[in-house]
Amino acid sequence: MGPSTLKAIGRAIQLSPSTVVGIVDRLEEKGLVHRQRDTRDRRNVFVAVTAAGQTVLANAPSALPNGFGSALGALPESDRQALVVSLEQFATLLEAKIPAEPA
């Protein structure tokens, strides 16, 4: 899509801008995207993929089957939000440093 606002990204992936903010925050922490203020209207902030993000995208297999976007879009907003929360919790668990059990 090129540099886009959080609102435009949210519309494209059918999530609220507030949900997109959290996702973009995590992607920015990993150096995969960066925020850039509009030079004409500094109230607008655009999100753009970095070179590292492009590399990740180029090497990533398709994670979703055909028609998934349409099926997701057919879900009520509350169900999509609940799904995002669950997936974010799952991602946090995957990234957690779990101490080894004593032998």
Automatic annotation (TrEMBL):
One GO process term, biological-process aspect: response to stress
Domain named HTH marR-type: residues: 1-92
- Top-rank taxon of the source lineage equals Bacteria
Q: Which UniProt keywords apply?
A: DNA-binding, Transcription, Transcription regulation
Q: Which Pfam families match?
A: MarR
Q: Which GO terms describe its molecular function?
A: DNA binding; DNA-binding transcription factor activity
Do the record's keywords include Transmembrane? no
Q: Which Gene3D superfamilies match?
A: Winged helix-like DNA-binding domain superfamily/Winged helix DNA-binding domain (1.10.10.10)
Looking up PROSITE patterns in the UniProt record yields: HTH_MARR_1 (PS01117), HTH_MARR_2 (PS50995)
Protein name, entry field: HTH marR-type domain-containing protein
